[in-house]
């Protein structure tokens, strides 16, 4: 699993890891961004289906970091993800991988906040507001239980500990390990301050990064996109349908957020969708 620094900002190196499939042929690239509300997480938290994708699905799997809020606000994060996509299309990455990658076929993916970043890269939403040129969109997007709008009630309504002390509250099968960043995430939910942490005083409204309104305005378009569940995702799917865009919505019931962390979920529907897209590209 080689690691590469794809960008540097104010002395902070921003890295990615890549995994190549066996053999010598050229392979498409699947770029994955981690979740964590843009406040925590790491490219090292690649679930088993991602680590298995090179050998099982013949993909070059790339997991990438980006600078975290609140030290970096949304425009800086947008700059990072754009730089990452540009690096994957560069001669430097072609050389790094020994010419093994098909740089014309890049699909961007991510879970939760990472799915939001994938949708932003795919649609171009938020780049102009951030003072950046939107990159050439990827071939496709896979957004797994993505955030799509931090102006939604989930992010603006305080959530308190009492809910988790209630034995009759909804069951769950997984919780992230404790860390200071996790405490920050919990505090963000408790106080409903995601916008303050991610947007802050950068002068850009949070709505500038909302996917569904951007698509509905016809100013932005998505490439072929696969989305797995989530109530906010329904707004994106409706907007995409209204704009005549190619979006597949896979609704799974009875599963938790971050369900694909469990090795039993191999995400076969997603990888089948990816290869159908690649075969017609």
UniProtKB/TrEMBL annotation:
Domain Alpha/beta hydrolase fold-3, first and last residues per copy:
30-257
Q: Which UniProt keywords apply?
A: Hydrolase
GO MF, one annotated term: hydrolase activity
Superkingdom field: Eukaryota
- A Pfam family this protein belongs to? Abhydrolase_3
- The protein in question is named Alpha/beta hydrolase fold-3 domain-containing protein
| Originating species | Trichosporon asahii var. asahii (strain ATCC 90039 / CBS 2479 / JCM 2466 / KCTC 7840 / NBRC 103889/ NCYC 2677 / UAMH 7654) (Yeast)
